[in-house]
Write a structure and sequence with these properties.
This protein is mainly beta and 121 residues long. It has one helix and eight strands; from the N terminus they run βαβββββββ.
Length: 121
Amino acid sequence: MFPVANAFSCNFPTDTLSIGGNRVLSRSFMKDATNLHAEVDSVPIQDLERYQSHSTNFAIQLPADNIVGAPGATLCSPSVADGIYIMLAPLTPGVHTIHLHAEFPASDFFVDVTYHLTVSA
């Protein structure tokens, strides 16, 4: 299972946003995702939007030096995630390449990842 693009929203200890409010934020970030692309062994996966999924609520404890700049061990709850994820059937033995790409122009952020896998028999 691979994320093509994903986002989460959470409440820090002083926040009062509801689960629904967090869900609106994570979905709005995903609406900005453009140029979504995923391919396996140079074969594009079509209609990636059909793989969009929304999480149930959960809690996370952020580590030190986290992406949002919160102090280490900060508990974020409730949290929700939204994203486009692909799950592959087992790959045949041999060498495989998986390429994923997504852009979030409003945030000046992009993801471009290539996995090189060797599957044993």
